Amino acid sequence: MASPGYGKRSTPGQLPRTASDFAHLPPREAAIAAYIDRLPEGAEMSVKALAKLLPYGQCAMSTALRCLRGTGHLRHGKEHLPGSGSGRWVTRTWFSRTPRDNGWWAAFVAGDLPAEQLRARRQTRSRAYILLAALGRTEPAMSLSAADCVTLEPLVAEWFARDATESDLVRALTGGLPFPVHSPAGLARNRLTAKLPPEPVRAPRPALRVLECAKCGAPDRPEALPDGECGPCRGEPAPARPRAGLPPEAVRARAA
What we know:
The radius of gyration is 27 Å and the shape is elongated. A hairpin with a 6-residue loop joins strand 4 (about 210) and strand 5 (about 220). The chain folds into 2 domains: about 10-110 and about 210-235, no CATH class; about 125-195, no CATH class. The protein is built from 11 helices and 5 strands, in the order βαααββαααααααββα. The protein has helices at about 25-35, 45-55, 60-70, 100-110, 115-120, 125-135, 135-140, 145-160, 165-175, 185-195, 250-255, and strands at about 10, 75-80, 90-95, 210, 220. The relative contact order is 0.12. The termini are far apart. Helix 1 crosses helix 3. It is α+β, with helices and mostly antiparallel strands.
């Protein structure tokens, strides 16, 4: 196992393991990827460590890992440890059995939920739907049908997005009801729209992860590290530096 904070970390939302997971890779890279896929969490994944365990030299291993980065299986970087009480960052090597494009890795670094998990959540009843379906237990006059719950679900979800609680919603939907309630769904729609709370003012979310160039280790934005490598390491010319302005003495001399 690698030192604490180092080693393999599997990404979320991967597809189930199959015999053809790495069929799109060359044979050597496919064999190495299959080996890494079966390593336990935290296992060391440096070029030197893998070369000791597999029948490939360090140069061949380095080339293979570059291929895995280029095909979206591998990234290197640092991750902030939440709840550590400090600004501690640890080195990570993230591996995904499912190949990911650069956009997915950028979303992963930002802490956004991968699309696979979003789809999985949609297959279950949402928090908004459950609240609407249970509303009739709190106030029988506001009993809603399944179709009503589906229709009103986005409105309730918007309340939750604005940090409203279940209690806030129940009060808004059941307080001061007219008698009788002729259309529970219509009344709920009107109240959810008219009483929608303002959008909360949130502080910028701190970074959760930072990608690093796999060759030189330079940290950068995900979009500046396509396939896990920075521009100079890919052979691109370094950006031109802006010319420095004249020193104050030269400016005064020219103005004289």
